[in-house]
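Moderator note: this is an archived Q&A kept for reference. The question asked for a predicted structure of one protein chain; the sequence and the answer are reproduced below.
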Amino acid sequence: MDPNRTMKPAFGNGDGAAHLLHVAVIPDGNGRWAAARGLPRTAGHQAGVESVRRLVEAAPSLGIGIVSLYVFSADNWERPQVEVVGLLGLLERFFIEEGQKFRETGVRVRAIGRRDRLPQGLRSSIGAIEKLTTAGRRLQLRLAIDYSAQDAILRAACRMISSLEISRREFARVLGLANYNDGPAPDVDLVIRTGGEQRLSDFLLWESAYAELVFSQRLWPDFQASDLEAAVEEFHRRDRRFGRIPQAVAG
């Protein structure tokens, strides 16, 4: 990838206004990557951390303003305990090690999903990196930990029962407040899933209603900046009509 190259801005909201892309990533394939090398699954998760670093470094130059990364789903608690403990410990170390670098490079880190079931050390490291990087404006990195889109929508729907306004905009606002302790849930422009599987796996279902989907055969530890660039270029080739017909046909 040419570091001097600037990608054209995305037009992801359907009204002609340019904005930075929101890219959601489902990083699949760590376990298979490790198994192919005769290594424990935890080694695959460790290798996947390097892919996260490459993703964060490359994203801004490709016109990406938000990256939402599916790190640990609510269903992942069902995995063997040794893998769960290893993965959560890896996350804690990642937050501790990367905080200062993210602050210096303008990356704001936010965690979405439940926190009450996470180990205290991980909760503390999440709070620390969020506070440390709060001024970041170059890229927003949203990490989904103990996350389920269906549960998130259900919690927001329960809060809407007493609302005086019933609209998609208001629901997105409540979804953000109920599940992210943040502002309105931002629409996703592009979903990338690695590892060859083709499903959303309960990730950002509301926000991805009109997202473009790109499925990569790459296992996550092998995912490079060039793969991210290829996915963004594919996004720009798509004809995004948001339910409307092309202008040429309409005219």
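Archived answer notes: The beta strands are 21-26, 64-73, 107-112, 139-147, 190-193, 212-215.
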